[in-house]
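Example record for the data management plan.
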Amino acid sequence: MAHMSGSGSSTTGSEEQLGRTVVVEAARSEPQQPLDLEWSGMSTQEPMGTPAAYSPDSDVIDRGVISLELATRLLHSYNTRLVNYFPTVHFPPEVTVEELRSTKPTLFLAAIAAASGKEGSRLYSILNTEVLSAYAHRTVIRGEKSLELVQALIVTSVWYYPPGKYSQLKFYEYIHMAATMALDIGLGTNPKTFRSRRGTDSDGDSPPAGDLDDVELEKRKTFLACYLISTGWVFSIILGGL
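Corresponding structural encoding:
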């Protein structure tokens, strides 16, 4: 910006006179390049600070929050790095992102949100907000209870990144939600005994471990994870307090 006292002065480039003030726009030898807002491999990506709002009808990839390539990398990071520290909820290596998106969308979202912590706080904040919105929609609005949701809540509570304010700490709430839902759907209960309380006859004997199918093993492993994180939280209260 330049100030001029007379009308005879000249400037380089284009100028607009507003009273006694002249706004000077310098001449450019090259055309201005558009601002590149791409941050996850998609040419039409929104800036990271303004992701599309949560929608139960589409996920973060459909809405362009992250790219398929980034989601694949985050899932691989979760399955090869984070699982080594807490091997209770993991995915077979042959399972693809596309398959998880369609069969276990909330668990998939929880896993990539957990792995996104190493990518930066902004990405984690966006994905964590997305997964919390999914919990609210599926549990509070639709009243769902499932093994997938229990596993997702375990992942969120185990790989919880503390907020800026101590008063906003909520990981124990996620632990409580996971444990309560696990009991509600019958995890940790002898399958035959659980059915007999609903009116069927059973001797209550548990099948040999070798006879358990993959689904039953997954249920028992999930219940064990709930037990571990719940007792760990209780002991932290007893020994050190929150």
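Summary line stored alongside the record: The mean pLDDT is 76.
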